[in-house]
Amino acid sequence: MTIEFDAIGHAQQLESAGVARNQADLHAKALTEVASAGVSTSDHVQMKDEWQRDIRRSEERLSSQITLAKTELSAELQTFRTESSAKIEVLDAKIDGVRTDLTTNIDGVRTDLTAKIDAVRTDLTAKIDGVRTDLNAKVDSVKEALTVHRWLLGVLLVMNSAIFARIYFP
Questions:
Q1: Entry's SUPFAM superfamilies (predicted)?
Q2: Which mean pLDDT values do the consecutive 10-residue runs of the chain (170 residues) have?
């Protein structure tokens, strides 16, 4: 069985693709020799069987390598999950500790603020009571002064009325 091969056309294709002329000629010559040698049917069948065997072997090797890689990755993934879970638990514990500390601090601040507010309230209440007492004393003082002034005004009116009555009604 022979294969027809156009060596000149092949060399021209190589040359137009950028291969140097002498390399293109050598390549075309080598392919011509291979094509002219021909391959017998039994050689073809034998080569086909060998290729199929090689392909099967390659498939088996790849399959075992894939299985091995899958097993290794599964083990690594499980290790990662275990380590991650442990780290997450540590982080959860730290978060809980921080939460407890913050709650304690907030409660302390709340207690301090409540005490300060109560102290300010007590102080303001005392001051307001003091001001109220002072105002009541001043109001009482003004009331007393007004009472005296009323009496004086009353006496003055009565005296003026008496003077008026004597002057106009002798």
A1: Apolipoprotein
A2: 72 88 88 70 75 86 91 94 93 94 94 95 94 93 89 91 88
